[in-house]
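MODEL INPUT / OUTPUT PAIR
PAIR INDEX: 1
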Amino acid sequence: MDQNNPLSEITHKRRVSALGPGGLTRERAGFEVRDVHPTHYGRVCPIETPEGPNIGLINSLAAYARTNQYGFLESPYRVVKEGVVTDDIVFLSAIEEADHVIAQASATMDAKKQLIDELVAVRHLNEFTVKAPEDVTLMDVSPKQVVSVAASLIPFLEHDDANRALMGSNMQRQAVPTLRADKPLVAGVDIYNLTKYTRSNQNTCINQRPLVSKGDVVQRSDIMADGPSTDMGELALGQNMRIAFMAWNGFNFEDSICLSERVVQEDRFTTIHIQELTCVARDTKLGPEEITADIPNVGEAALNKLDEAGIVYVGAEVGAGDILVGKVTPKGETQLTPEEKLLRAIFGEKASDVKDTSLRVPTGTKGTVIDVQVFTRDGVERDSRALSIEKMQLDEIRKDLNEEFRIVEGATFERLRSALNGQVVEGGAGLKKGSVISNEVLDGLEHGQWFKLRMAEDALNEQLEKAQAYIVDRRRLLDDKFEDKKRKLQQGDDLAPGVLKIVKVYLAIRRRIQPGDKMAGRHGNKGVVSVIMPVEDMPHDANGTPVDVVLNPLGVPSRMNVGQILETHLGL
């Protein structure tokens, strides 16, 4: 699945294709099947489709479209009765809506939701016409229902040429999550384990950040955490930049982009990519490969980032050529030179019968090790690193379950406190008959003593028994859950035939924007960074504030995407 950013994931799940079994082929599909059809209205987006041979054959669902039980696409409409728009919503397929007279969402209404124009622009029998308000039977729910999720994110979409809007909706899916997201200016007991620095399918970084603190009061629909490319729950695919449309010493010729050095210094377009590097130990004809720190002909300096099992430490800063996982492979008997005979005589068999096949950092790569996973075949003895990873995971599971129990137990005793406060006790827990329970009395008792209280009211005694049974049952349930997860962790991994062990090392690589990188706006205004200029060399406004980006003004007229100018004005 495409996991470049949240938008690309949603779009991938909402894709509609005319290709595949029982469908068309690219070679035989003509212009007619690729074209926009009147029945696409509110069901298939007329904007978002790939450029190239798949144009018109692969589409996206419109924002509010859904499939019915027969697989037909349906679009929502508000019911109109005698010129009055109701809040009743009906979903209709293209066949069902054909006879209806459908007004647009922008039709003018008064305070009582009565259509007030003498003639209303409508769709009827797949044609655009005008009708009297009393003839209207349905109304669009929103102007956005015509386009897909990606196209609806383009501000001033109606001011952009369709070709450029197509590019804009496609390029938003390619946006790499930045270090700090910046939302656009124009635009029971549950434990939520946040995903921290995890690799996506596109090697980008999935990292969630909590937005609430301990003690905050939250309610339904409140945002509790941000993920990649989100800022306070709002989609934030890029950064808000101060733009100048002007020629600048030829640096923005032919859609080139001139960037300020401040953008690089402030890490506005810095991204983190997570690379997965895999080392596999197999059973060969000459014997098993071994993952070890005892590697022939390698100095101490090259091994200082490895543990005793031969696997790199988490947190180690590594560069090109550094050893991540030490591995030796048996090699066949060859004719020995006198030097090798001497080495064999001094150091024994090990010195000559294995060769170094360690996993190293690829050329041109530099980063930080953020995670290591060790998978061992069932029946093969686990090394010290695998055991320490297993122990760490078990500790994490136990910590989560204990926290869950603490919250459940706390809520139960709070309910009991409110029920028992001011009630008369018959005895138990060292209290005299006829005593009145107060908060001070309850605070002086351990939680286990609460269940020994005998209350004057039978209903309270029953409540105490139920609470005790609930807490015991919950503890047993969580213990069973822990044992089940422990059993799954401790059993061997199901690996391919001949594979004894797999070690996966995850490397976080930080990349700053540089000349040659592609940048794009939401209106199909794409370009390549040509130069990064010092702040003092950038053009500035009347107040002396320098701009962040200089774009070529010739990129607007011929492309007919005036939306970018309007977005720039509104952003100011």
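PAIR INDEX: 2
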Amino acid sequence: MKDHLVKAIADGVRVYAAVTTNLVNEGIRRHECYPVASAALGRTMTGALLLAANLKNKECLTVKFNGDGPLGNVVADATPEGFVRGYVQ
């Protein structure tokens, strides 16, 4: 199944839903992540994509979690066009 993002508006309420399985698997493959890092990276990239879906023009959104545990930082950038990238330190 292809990844997709669905937007809906009803009675002044906006709803966004995303299927990002292929996106997350590609991030895991490129970064050769362990399971915990894979989950953190996938969730952060998906969250950034959902937040960026509401941006206008050529804006970019960055989500960054600073941790003091085994992962350290988790960062994801996303655009309203659906481009997203991320990494785990």
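PAIR 2 NOTE: The two ends are 30 Å apart (CA to CA).
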